[in-house]
Design goal:
The chain has helices at about 15-25, 30-40, 45-50, 60-70, 75-85, 95-100, 120-135, 140-150, 170-175, 180-195, 245-260, 265-275, and strands at about 105-110, 165-170, 200-205, 220, 230-235, 240. By secondary structure, it is of the alpha/beta class. It folds into two domains: about 1-70, lambda repressor-like DNA-binding domains (434 Repressor (Amino-terminal Domain), Orthogonal Bundle); about 95-115 and about 155-275, Endonuclease, Chain A. β5 (about 230-235) and β6 (about 240) form a beta hairpin. α4 (about 60-70) packs antiparallel against α5 (about 75-85), α7 (about 120-135) runs antiparallel to α8 and α10 (about 180-195) packs antiparallel against α12. It is elongated.
């Protein structure tokens, strides 16, 4: 007789996902191997997701939605995956992501770290491994964050991508994250990013000194109706602001930042210099 492991959907969001997958499968009278054949996965993979040994992915969730007929419904596994993924993100950030996905124009400024939309998988993984070592997230949550970031970056290659304008503080390219190889690939990626028709990237050099208007990360979103909102973060939460009286000064400061930052051509030259100068 097959030993079926009991599931506790209350144990964690991942356990709840697995329990619902098993329930949906069993309600149709399918074995794990039968569901695997319909969805393009192995029976072992289905078992691992059901019992929580393996986290579900976005492609897996979409495949299950197709098999069960849950696509774009309240029962969607993709929706469950999104909720599970957002559980490992900074408070306030999921709300920002929903707006970022709709934005016509995105303007970013960051200090010390290349913004997520521009990170390579290797760079993002090293950052999350640091969080794991500090004990702020689990290894599974780190993997979920990197996977979520790669999915988030798909907005840059969709049919009608947003305009993306980025100003990096020079510290973003001087601070070494991970190995020299990780930084070399990240710098190469920034050079490739600058070549896209819907992007602009500049470096705010250290020589700006006190003239740099921002002391922390700032994201500005221009929506299809031309309304603008801002997003800033602390160590513990993020805050999305829609009030014009507080958002418009940030837009003005951002324009001032761009005016004093290096041109895109000069900035790309800095990336190339950093890439070539990184010891192997």
């Amino acid at each position: 007789m097959v030993n079926i492991k009991p599931l506790n959907p209350e144990a964690s969001p991942r356990a709840a996902y697995g329990a619902r997958l098993r329930s949906s499968r069993e309600s149709r009278g399918w074995t794990q191997d039968e569901l695997a054949g319909l969805g393009g996965y192995s029976g072992r993979h289905i078992s691992a997701v059901e019992t929580g040994r393996k986290p579900p992915t976005l492609p897996f969730s979409r495949s299950m939605d197709t098999v069960f007929g849950f696509t774009s419904t309240a029962e969607s596994f993709e929706r469950a995956w999104t909720e599970l993924r957002n559980g490992s993100l900074l408070e306030g950030f999921p709300e920002y992501l929903s707006q970022e996905n709709r934005a016509a124009e995105i303007r970013l400024f960051d200090i010390g770290v290349v913004p997520g939309l521009l990170q390579t998988p290797e760079y993002a993984t090293v950052l999350e491994e640091g969080n794991v070592r500090r004990g702020t997230i689990t290894p599974d949550q780190a993997a979920e964050r990197v996977e979520a970031l790669m999915d988030r970056q798909s907005i840059l290659t969709r049919r009608n991508p947003p305009i993306l304008i980025v100003v990096l503080d020079e510290s973003c390219i001087r601070r070494v994250i991970g190995s020299p190889a990780v930084m070399e690939r990240q710098m190469a990626h920034l050079i490739e990013f600058a070549e896209r028709p819907n992007t602009m990237i500049q470096v705010a050099p250290f020589t700006m000194g006190e003239r740099r208007p921002f002391g922390r990360q700032v994201n500005l979103l221009t929506m299809p109706d031309r309304s603008v909102m801002s997003y800033v973060e602390s160590e513990t939460n993020g805050y999305l602001d829609r009030e014009l009286t507080s958002v418009l000064p940030l837009v003005r400061y951002y324009h001032q930042l761009q005016a004093e930052a290096h041109s895109q051509a000069a900035s790309v030259a800095m990336f190339d210099e950093a890439r070539k100068g990184t010891p192997r």
